């Protein structure tokens, strides 16, 4: 009994320490965002500002057309996440539930694409998008997501492999086709994996800097990460405004995680089998 209490205290102590370590950068960004320029220049830095300047957020937001950047980021993120999650689920369903010649070889080739760095692909992709006339549009940031992602396909495929064949056999006997089986049976069962993939890919797209930097040249189509970089000049950096926008940018990802975590944790496939 004593050992279990000690173990529980030790576990919670470690979790608290790790939580503080992970939350400290966000805390530091926030206090930097609400400091005055004079207090920001102090050394050693202060952990708690003497006066909180909430107007720094409005000042930073209005210094650039961040409303337009926000709209662009929302459009790109929403459309890309929808395309990535659905297409990856569809491809994963094909690899997991259909036996065909070359299945394992094709899946291995798919996984091998994860070892190719984006730096190697950027020039061929740039030439390809230039040929399509997609440069300086949001299409290069959205359309590729509709062809799935190797990691997300792997995640969903491994889950689908654990589901008994009884599910689709019963549905086929009832006269359902494979599209109906996928949309009505497997997509609901894939909900935790879909939510997890959506959150993970949302973070990737929402914080993507290199993609918009390479493919977009017009300021009207900039996304938030590009707008964030405008606070950095050749000789000086407006750290107060930089951190203010950084704090604002983290809010959607935090909200998405807290909304989706219950779906990720409630991964109960056995409930469908019992019925």
TrEMBL record:
It is a multi-pass membrane protein. One of its GO terms (biological process) is transmembrane transport. Its main location: membrane. Keywords: Cell membrane, Membrane, Sugar transport, Transmembrane, Transmembrane helix, Transport. Residues 70-260 form the ABC transmembrane type-1 domain. It comes from the Bacteria. Gene3D superfamilies: MetI-like (1.10.3720.10). Belongs to the binding-protein-dependent transport system permease family. This is Multiple sugar transport system permease protein.
């Amino acid at each position: 009994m004593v050992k279990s209490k000690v173990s529980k205290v030790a576990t919670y102590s470690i979790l608290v320490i790790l939580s503080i370590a992970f939350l400290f950068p966000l805390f530091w960004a926030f206090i930097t965002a609400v400091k005055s320029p004079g207090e920001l220049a102090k050394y050693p830095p202060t952990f708690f500002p003497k006066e909180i300047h909430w107007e720094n957020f409005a000042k930073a937001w209005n210094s650039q057309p961040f409303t337009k950047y926000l709209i662009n980021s929302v459009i790109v993120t929403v459309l890309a996440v929808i395309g990535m999650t659905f297409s990856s689920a569809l491809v994963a369903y094909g690899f997991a539930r259909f036996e065909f010649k070359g299945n394992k070889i094709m899946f291995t080739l798919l996984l091998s694409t994860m070892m190719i760095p984006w730096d190697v692909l950027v020039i061929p992709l740039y030439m390809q998008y230039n040929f399509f006339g997609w440069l300086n549009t949001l299409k290069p940031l959205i359309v590729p997501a509709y062809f799935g992602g190797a990691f997300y396909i792997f995640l969903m495929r491994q889950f689908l492999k654990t589901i008994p064949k009884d599910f689709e056999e019963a549905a086929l006997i009832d006269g359902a086709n494979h599209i109906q089986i996928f949309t009505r049976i497997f997509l609901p069962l894939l909900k935790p994996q879909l939510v997890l993939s959506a959150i993970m890919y949302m973070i990737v797209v929402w914080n993507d800097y290199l993609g918009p930097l390479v493919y977009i040249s017009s300021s009207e189509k900039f996304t938030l990460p590009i707008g964030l970089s405008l606070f950095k000049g050749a000789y000086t950096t407006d750290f107060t405004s930089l951190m203010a926008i950084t704090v604002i940018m983290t809010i959607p990802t935090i909200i998405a995680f807290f909304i989706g975590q219950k779906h990720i944790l409630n991964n109960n496939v056995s409930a469908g089998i019992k019925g």
